[in-house]
Amino acid sequence: MKLAPTVKLNNGYEMPILGLGTYNLKKSRCVDAVRHALELGYRHIDTAFLYRNEGLVGKVLGEFVGARKVQREQVFLVTKLWDIYHEPKRVQYACELQLKQLDVDYIDLYLMHSPVGVHYNSDEDMMPHLENGELWTNNVDYLDTYKSMEQLVDLGLVRSLGLSNFNLDQLQRLLLSCRIKPAALQIECHPELVQIPLMELCKLHNITVVAYSPLGRPTTGRPLPEFYKDTKVVEMAKKYQKTPAQVVLRYLIDLGTVPIPKAAQKGHLKENLDVFDFKLTTEELLHFESFNRGQRIWKFEKAKHHQYYPY
Ligand SMILES: NC(=O)C1=CN([C@@H]2O[C@H](COP(=O)(O)OP(=O)(O)OC[C@H]3O[C@@H](n4cnc5c(N)ncnc54)[C@H](OP(=O)(O)O)[C@@H]3O)[C@@H](O)[C@H]2O)C=CC1
Ligand SMILES: O=C1CO[C@H](CO)[C@@H](O)[C@@H]1O
Fold first, then answer.
1. Rg of the chain on CA atoms, in Å
2. 186-225 tens-digit pLDDT
3. Centroid of ligand 1 to alpha carbon of 262 (angstroms)
4. Where would I find the NADP-dependent oxidoreductase domain in this sequence (predicted)?
5. Could you tell me which residues come within 8 angstroms of residue 6 by beta carbon, excluding any fewer than 6 positions away?
6. Which residue of 38, 179, 264, 285 sits 20 to 30 Å from the alpha carbon of 270, by its own alpha carbon?
């Protein structure tokens, strides 16, 4: 079994440079995917309160730890504080709820899912809406939320903190006041959206960039992104005896990011982890720049009215 290499985070913890995304994995598909992934050698799993699958992820992880197939410390478990828990008084409650669902006593990396706070009705009502159809947001400052997240590290509930869906100004503002530097920033990143200035800022502060939707969500009903059919990408795939998806993941790794592709199919899971035995040339890497049109898949338009809307 071959494991992915790791990157050292700015706090010394190691993160495998390829993880399993679990958005939209429900019921037995989730259980099967996480099981296959751990069997294949995945040691980094990305979930979120929002995905409603933390219980299943935790169940499979517990099964593997119980059977001594893996030790808890060998799996880098990432989850996210959902937007309804931004009020400082709710942060520890949310984290403890998630620890319980995941059936673990610490989370490796806890991300603020987005800078936008959402009104809390109940743990079940994750997307409360106003009568006009807008998301029912609140004005909690993400700096206050983050301060409460820092206490989770002090309490030993969380090892590393991170952010997701923050823009450059928001990250900069947070860096000016935080006590514990974020170890990672999770952002949409694939050949059609490579946010260079934001990534440069992360590099400067040694913040690891985690690439979400790294494959551009093929086979999810969206048209197949152009780079899959590009003659040069297809040629690269042939040259290295890989698939275009593997070439894309290799490109993102060579950019210095940590991709977290989601896959339910075993063939995909296997393919995505098998990207550590080749490297693209400078010319091949440069070719990918032609696809970078700032094409965002996730626009979070329901929060467009909010002062902290990031795009
Ligand atoms: N922080 C945030 O706001 C967000 C975080 N994320 C995280 O990022 C993860 C990945 O992003 P996601 O949006 O799921 O999209 P991805 O870009 O990972 O695409 C997933 C799709 O690609 C298919 N696929 C996987 N591997 C291959 C392959 N080798 N060849 C061809 N197709 C393949 C999958 O098919 P199949 O399942 O059938 O195998 C699935 O339909 C999420 O699951 C989630 O964990 C995502 C969005 C937002
Ligand atoms: O991680 C995510 C996946 O999908 C959600 C939409 O349903 C996003 O809001 C979120 O950021």
1. 19
2. 999 999 999 999 999 999 999 999 999 999 999 778 889 9
3. 3
4. 18-291
5. 14, 15, 16, 17
6. 285
**CA count, 13 A, side-chain hemisphere, 305:** 12
State the catalytic residue, choosing from 42, 51, 85, 120. Answer: 51
Please report the domains of the chain, with CATH numbers, ordered by start residue.
6-303 (3.20.20.100)
Beta bridge partners of 87: none
DSSP label at residue 116:
-
Quote the crossing angle between the two packed helices 244-254 and 266-273, to the nearest 10°: 40
Task: List 188's β-bridge partners, or say none.
Answer: 212
Instruction: Quote the strand ranges of the chain, DSSP E.
Output: 6-8, 14-16, 20-21, 44-46, 76-81, 107-112, 158-164, 184-188, 208-212, 258-259
Q: Which residues are within 8 A (CB) of 177 and not within 5 positions of it... i.e. 6 or more apart?
A: 143
| Six token digits for residue 190 | 């694939």
Orientation of helix 27-40 relative to helix 266-273, angle to 10°:
40
* Predicted complex ipTM exceeds 0.95: yes
pTM equals 0.98
Residue positions forming the annotated binding site for substrate: 113
